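Memo to structure team: turn this sequence into structure tokens by end of day. - J.P.
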Amino acid sequence: MKICTWNINSVRLREPLVLKLLAQEAPDVLCLQECKSPVEKIPTDGFAELGYRHMIANGQKGYNGVAILSKTPIREVGSEDFASLGHARHIAGQLENGLTIHNFYVPAGGDVPDREVNDKFGQKLDYLTEMRDHFRKEKPQKAVLVGDLNIAPREDDVWNHKNLLKIVSHTPIEVEHLEQTQEAGAWVDITRQDIPEGLLYSWWSYRAADWDAADKGRRLDHVWATPDISNAGHGSYVLREARGWEQPSDHAPVFASFDL
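Reply from structure team:
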């Protein structure tokens, strides 16, 4: 089973890119974040023509939004509003083989890493805290967690560790919160299980005149799995080329396969 996670940054605007990805890479499941669309306006017809006839989604107009497209039936089993933000940032589904998939879009956190002067940073930390508490209370089993978690935790998940220590997405307090969330569910970072060493990114800013040449990326998009299936995970990769497609998202798709 091949699973992909991708912050698409508007599923309606970038429908052609989603279709290209599905046709080219053929994942069994595609998890999208930042869909920026009410559920009823997500363009599902083209996806269905390629074999993705099943979708669960949590959407809202213009902002946020998460969706899971699947070749096989999937039923919704959760949609949490962590930190009570009223944002469409989580959807969970279960496949017929019993695998539960959590799809998250964690708040970005604004520009200033100080909750006293930046409410968005506080919201991000609170969101992660409630994720942690949720998984402490309800221990996941036979589950995968994917999404744009908006944190690059490791030194080799960013282009320059020292330069980014005070930049939102790589600050120590964010990394600590993410690690606590990971520990709460005993989640295994499948991407780094497969690719344990070396610089690895899934996001490159639109601000760079030439994102590819500058290569100042961050690994914000993640694939985790519970210990009972983590050994079944393999074949992880980031489809870097998608960042260079026409009118691209600033995120690249991240893949992992599971023998289940």
